[in-house]
Amino acid sequence: MRTSLITPLLLALAGAMHAPADAADTADQRSVAQAARGKYLVDTSGCMDCHTPFKMGPNGPEPDMSRMLSGHPEQLVMPPAPALPAGPWLIVSSGTNTAHAGPWGVSFTANLTPDPETGLGLWSARDFRATIRTGRHLGRGRAVLPPMPIPVYNHFSDDDLDAVFAYLRTIPPIRNRVPEPLPPAQRSAARP
């Protein structure tokens, strides 16, 4: 009789002991799946085209993966942007594809790595969503400037944006302080 009471008790206790681990495993699996989805979205949405500096390779410009998603290199001081002739030309871009001059002034691509001082390390998923939804840093700061395709990325669902942010939290942090944008009047003095 005693054995029949102990066995169900031990089975219940064993099940309870494994439940948190199973729940944690499930949460870990969801987290890994979310980051994998975010990687897919980053890889297919052109994020690296501007946020990873280009370098010259044997076949021309190629992403410098040692600086993956770290934005405009802080040590690269840009000379004045060349003036474009009147007509349909609108944008001048740097060889690294991380600095862009146009009617808005000069914009520099942001550091998307999780570096806490110069990247997104102190941001929350809510901050990231607010930035994309409003076109303003942290949803309330300065405007996110061209060529960032905010009107296109606004079509991402919150789940997509959370996945992108989850992936960005998994990449190596790179300390790289990107210069502030320059207004149109200072466009000819593109200095960090």
Automatic annotation (TrEMBL):
Which Pfam families does this UniProt record tie to the protein?
Cytochrom_C
Q: Which InterPro entries match?
A: Cyt_c-like_dom (IPR009056), Cyt_c-like_dom_sf (IPR036909), Cytochrome_c-type_DH (IPR051459)
Q: Which domain of life is it from?
A: Bacteria
Q: Which PROSITE patterns match?
A: CYTC (PS51007)
What does the UniProt keyword field contain? Heme, Iron, Metal-binding, Signal
Q: Where is the signal peptide?
A: 1-23
What are the residue boundaries of the Cytochrome c domain, all occurrences included? 33-172
- What's the protein name? C-type cytochrome
The organism encoding this protein is Pseudaquabacterium terrae
